[in-house]
Amino acid sequence: MGKTRLALEAAAASAGDFADGAWLVDLAAVRDPSSVADATATALGLPDVGAGAVIDQLAASLAHRAPLIVLDNCEHLIDACAELAHALLSASPGLRVLATSRQALGIFGEHLIAVPPLAQADAMELLRDRAIAVRPGFQVTDGNRAEVRRLCGDLDGLPLAIELAASRLRTLSVSEVANRLEDRFGLLTSGNRIARPHQRTLRALMAWSHELCTPAERLLWSRLSVFVGDFGLDAAEAVCAGDGIGGTKVLDLLDRLVVQSVALPHERDGLPRYRLLETVRQYGRERLVEAGEEQRMLRRHQGFYLAFAEGIADGWHGPGPLESMTRVSAEHANLRAALARGGDPQATLALTAALRFHWCEGGHVSEGRRWLDRALAAALEPTPVRARALWVAAWVAALQSDLEAACRLSEEAGDLGERLGDPVVCAHVQSLRGTLAVFGGRLDEAVPFFEAAVAAHTDTDDEIGALYALLQLGIAQSRLGDPHAQQICRRAVALAEAHGEQRAHSLALWALGNNAWLRGDLDEASALIRTALEKEQGFNDSIKVALMLEELAWVTSARGDHKEAGRLLGGARTLLRDTGTVLSTFGPHMVEQHDRCEDGIVRSLGRTAYEEALAEGANHCGPDEAIAYALRSRSEPVVTAPAPSPLTPREREVAALVAEGMSNRQIATAFGRSPRTVDGHVENILAKLEFNCRAQIASWWTANQAYTA
């Protein structure tokens, strides 16, 4: 009925009324109700690393925000969507949910807006617009108006049906399309009289469009139905070629399906992708089942994504980690489908282990743990795949602060690795043991584990593994006051540079900065940690950025800029809160130093000024904004009071309400003015203060309200 398009237009028109913007959660590709919260967290770009339920993490992250969330295609997940919407709306007074579904969610406060078929005039206009795209010069004239009206009437005003019919006007006249369509409707009506009229119409159109394809196009259509969400050409070629489709023919056939509007091309994060509309995909799946090909294609689908994930894991380190993250993120829906298929437990286990960097560094820790737990329980055989999955599961548990489970899993992985004679697993387990010792506050125990891990990774020619163990060794030695620590950290930096390893380079610089701080070289420490933050931009790693901001705050406080240190602690606190992680996860020494830094700031500024600095530094969304805030220019002179406000009294009142999180529409209601008037006030405020977003207005008001009253 065009519900999605209508929702997107509504969201675009009202996005300015929401302080935290409008976000689309496309649920068409989600099959498992338990994945609804995961899909929402992914769409909102919220990290998923806490040990608790994802729905609770979402509620906590959104509690102080006011976005508009569009939940699209809810009908097949109605209970899960209702639970999610209720939880989020209960947690956040400023949040609004716009859902598209064939069925109401059935929760308190829901307002229903029925979307009827297009009126005849609108249906005819849509047909004309879409026909022009495939047949330039097409117009509705006195000569064809009656046939256009008949065609739109036979299609019941369904936008999808009209668009598909318009694609046939490339080669057929309006009359020919209408006549062929009528024949198909008659056949389907006589075969399924109990189906609803609109379902008969849409199914008839699918059947008609299917019959107009060549046998090879039909075959590709049905095979493409195993993909969920969108897919790349490489996936289509690997999964769909063979047995009637030549390996070099997939691109040509896919292009022909695009021309016929069966497949739709689009771009995701700079990557060319294709997708089938859900109705088109479902129709193709029915044909695949009829042909007896469904299970074979699903096995090929899972096999492709296993090879894809293993290739991504092998190439994760190096000069192009952002590209790897982008590629695996684009395939998230298909990876979920491959994991959910089951079939071969060892293949599923191998896939969960191969996605280790996606889980741990891509912001999907909680989801990764659920898949790992499920796969490990289903594949108990003592295989190399299980040994690898066990140390990955231990890594994930450690990131969730579940040190007991992490220790148990790492010991099981180590025992199995030794039994199988797998030196790679044994090397990773040694690193994990060192990390867990650090998290437990046992720094003396951690050092020999990291030293053994460096040697073990070196013996297996895993220089990247050795590099990560080396930089962790340097951090542990620095905290213990070992005079060799600086040399170890510098060696890690040199190795990262030599391998073009961007992520490890940022970590090694951070480790070297930590060493400089512990040695009392505050200028060097600040410069190194800030450089490490620069290199973290774009990776969406909230935990890593939070820890860097935390330590930069310690250095900044030691240099005497207590207010800036408070801002940095506020940024770190927000990132940790949004991930459901606590600072104590990373060892008691972190908490002790945080408390010393906080006490120093409070003694210098006072509790009220410290809380204001925390609030100012916390006003960002995600790690990239936090990094940008931390790295902003600090060359401006420090003054005891800001310059006189350039805002009018009314604009100051509007700014105050923006800082409270109110939307333009809510402010208009409070003042008894039109939303357009308030829109003008907000635009004037942004222009006068040379800002570009509402968050900056809120920060400015918090810092300057004493002088703007």
Summarize the structure.
The protein has 709 residues and is mainly α. It is 67% helix and 4% strand.
Percent helix: 55-70%
Oligomer: single chain
Bin the strand percentage: under 5%
List low-confidence stretches: 183-200, 635-643
Query: What is the overall silhouette?
Result: globular
Would you count the extended β strands for me?
6
Q: Going across the major beta sheet, what is the strand order?
A: 1-2-3
Through-space gap between termini: 52 Å
What structural category do the secondary elements indicate? mainly alpha
Radius of gyration: 29 Å
For the sheet with most strands, the description reads: 3 strands, parallel
Q: Quote the average pLDDT.
A: 86
Q: Helix count, per DSSP?
A: 36
Protein described:
The chain is mainly α. 67% of the residues lie in helices and 4% in strands. It has 36 helices and six strands. The strands form two sheets. It has a three-stranded parallel β-sheet with strand order 1-2-3, sandwiched between helices. A three-stranded antiparallel β-sheet has the order 4-6-5. It is globular.
